[in-house]
Amino acid sequence: MKEIAPGLWHWTAQHERIGIEVSSYYLDRERVLIDPMIPPAGLKWFEQHGTPEHTLLTNRHHDRHAWRLREAFSCTVHCIGNGVDELQGRGPIEAFEFGDQLPGGVTVYEVNAICADETALHIPSHAALACADGVVRDAPGGQLSFVPDFLMDDPERTKQGLRDAYRRLLELEFELLLLAHGDPVVSAGKDALRAFVAAG
Q1: How many domains does the chain have?
Q2: Residue 200: pLDDT band by 50, 70, 90 thresholds?
Q3: 175 and 189 in contact (C-beta within 8 Å)?
Q4: 151-173 per-position pLDDT tens digit
């Protein structure tokens, strides 16, 4: 567990289904989880840092351990409306739409391109932008990249759509770039995303 900014925690854990380490985040003052796995220290970690009240998903695939955390803490699970159908039967879920403001003062932005429910979450109180699968980081300290081509229906079109979406998001104010796959960029995250967009 690492506090990457005051009140903003990051950790990694192995996703059982896909077999790789993924990143999760917790805004402790806001009691908001983003794309959560259970922390390495277990549920008891929240006894010292405040129990979560809300879980925000950056796309429908990132429910991860959301239901186990909901069972433990009765936190509400939130997902973009066009992704909730795939989550039916897993547990109660509250749908949101692009442009909505969510708990913790988080605003939802459309990314689309790689999948219709791909979102970005802007968190002004932490000067952060959380992304789903459109941009990843394969190694600590490594460069931002796309997921492998085989995960895209039309790789070149998808990449251009993602660049266009992230170019629009560069109008927002943020310093930290929170990635669902790979370590976050905790310094000059906006510059890193700008370079990623320009590299195409």
Answers
A1: 1
A2: low
A3: yes
A4: 888 999 999 999 999 999 999 99
E runs forming strands in the chain: 2-5, 8-14, 21-27, 32-34, 54-56, 76-80, 94-96, 101-102, 106-110, 119-123, 128-131, 136-137, 144-145, 176-179
Q: What is the CATH number of the domain that holds 58?
A: 3.60.15.10
Stretch (H or E) spanning 199: helix 189-199
Contact (CB, 8 A) for 96 and 79? yes
Instruction: Give one word for 160, left, alpha or beta, with left for phi > 0 and alpha for psi -120 to 50.
Output: alpha
Amino acid at 163: R
Rounded CA-CA distance 56/32 in Å is 7
Give residues with Cβ within 8 angstroms of 151, minimum separation 6: 114, 133
**Angle, helices 155-169/189-199, rounded to nearest 10 degrees:** 140
Tell which residue, 1, 65, 2, has the closest CA to residue 35: 65
- Determine the structural domain holding residue 179 and report its residue range: 2-199
From 78, 97, 90, select the one nearest 30 (Cα to Cα): 78
In the numeric block, which tokens belong to residue 200? 């195409």
